[in-house]
Amino acid sequence: MKALMLAAGLGRRLYGDENQELPKALLKFDGQTLLHRHIDTLVACGVVELTLVVGHRSEDVLEEAHRVAPDGFIKSVYNPRYREGPKISLAAGEAVLRSGRQVIFMDADVLYHPTLMERLVNSAHDTCFVMDREFQSTDDFVKVCLLENRLVDFGKQVGDTHDTVGEWPGFFKMSPEVAAAIADSVEGFIARGAEGGAYEEAFREVLADSTPGTFGVEDITGVPWVEIDFEGDLEKATTRIYPRIADYQGGKKIKIKTA
Predict the structure, then answer these.
(1) What is the pTM assigned to this prediction?
(2) Domains and CATH numbers, the chain
């Protein structure tokens, strides 16, 4: 199993349009960067390779990645068009999406307890979203919509044919076939001149075109996490979520099965 992480953006919503701040993947909690935490968790889950799509201050991201990761674990793709939107960064990961392996897709700006990733990697579903029934974000969240416990819609803008809705934390496991379909979809958006907007539109398009039951969901309600988009998210991460992660561990070793 491989992982693909988008870590190219400027962090406009947190820092502004022309900032020179370090990428959000390098935010530190108790002296450890988000990227370091991601890598430790992926290695513990048995993921064999992480490809980073980088852009803004790419040298800083890659320096940290190679500092903390096992030898050979990190691959990277530079997206020179990183200012133009996340769909282009997703398309830059085409080689991973077409690798013929299961792929874990990851946003770089999420602080979370390792149990979240454990449940996703070890899910019985070959293609799977994670979902929190308690919304953690106050703005600009991505919804996971179920009808009779079956995934029926996904995205920031969704229809009304569902009976349950939760928030997506930014992680997604794909079968090789679905990963290739995602690559086709995002390339189609770009070819049509629709490279703007959220990359989740490509996931939603493939979901809509797939046989019902292809996409599964793992409920991670109660597991501490937060996506850091805005100043309020960073404050929440520091003052509320990070302390909850320590409490949630409870001093117990997290048992993670090799994937």
Answers:
(1) 0.92
(2) 2-129+169-249 (3.90.550.10)
